[in-house]
């Protein structure tokens, strides 16, 4: 059974996508629900809010324990931020306390990385590991909404998809640069973008195969 952490964010869209990909799905707001799932989706939303709510709902430590024990987790956008070990530019609350992550995935993310001028954008991405044997690879239509990118990947982390940023005088980028936007480390999968809003099912299918130990 697949859980969707249901504290804030696009829970329903992920539940629908996981169901369409063949999973039984429940919302997770309590410890007992977390205990019942074989894998968990951390939805997109607002990472600072989800961070606070995991503590209010007393889920932070149980989540960290399950992640450390090998539970498969897929985080999209804010969910990627929550899975990251480090945030390059963490938000601070009114008391000056920096937002925290659950961690587990050895990456550093930068929040809202694509900048104010490009709040949201869509693009086609080549994405590794999606095609089943004998099937052709076709690109993923990816929607980015105030998305993070991955600035550092640890040795254990595979990059599954990247975006090329063109040279741009305004940002001082004189040559095109490549940023990772989908990564995997063993049981942990994360994307900067939102496959749950486009009808794309293959990323949820990959995650379900990871839960079943088939990928
Ligand atoms: N910018 C948001 C954050 O930092 C993520 C946006 C999203 O999940 N679409 O949490």
From TrEMBL:
L-glutamine binds at residues 45-47, 111, 145-146. Keywords: Glutamine amidotransferase, Hydrolase, Lyase, Pyridoxal phosphate. The active site is at 77 (nucleophile), 194 (charge relay system), 196 (charge relay system). The keyword Signal does not apply. The keyword Transport does not apply. One of its GO terms (molecular function) is pyridoxal 5'-phosphate synthase (glutamine hydrolysing) activity. Pathway: Cofactor biosynthesis; pyridoxal 5'-phosphate biosynthesis. One of its GO terms (biological process) is L-glutamine catabolic process. Its EC number is 4.3.3.6, 3.5.1.2. It catalyses: L-glutamine + H2O = L-glutamate + NH4(+); aldehydo-D-ribose 5-phosphate + D-glyceraldehyde 3-phosphate + L-glutamine = pyridoxal 5'-phosphate + L-glutamate + phosphate + 3 H2O + H(+). It comes from the Bacteria. InterPro entries: Class_I_gatase-like (IPR029062), PdxT/SNO (IPR002161), PdxT/SNO_CS (IPR021196). Transmembrane segments: none annotated. GO terms for cellular component: cytosol; glutaminase complex. Pfam families: SNO. Catalyzes the hydrolysis of glutamine to glutamate and ammonia as part of the biosynthesis of pyridoxal 5'-phosphate. The resulting ammonia molecule is channeled to the active site of PdxS. Belongs to the glutaminase PdxT/SNO family. In the presence of PdxS, forms a dodecamer of heterodimers. Only shows activity in the heterodimer. This is Pyridoxal 5'-phosphate synthase subunit PdxT. It comes from Arthrobacter glacialis.
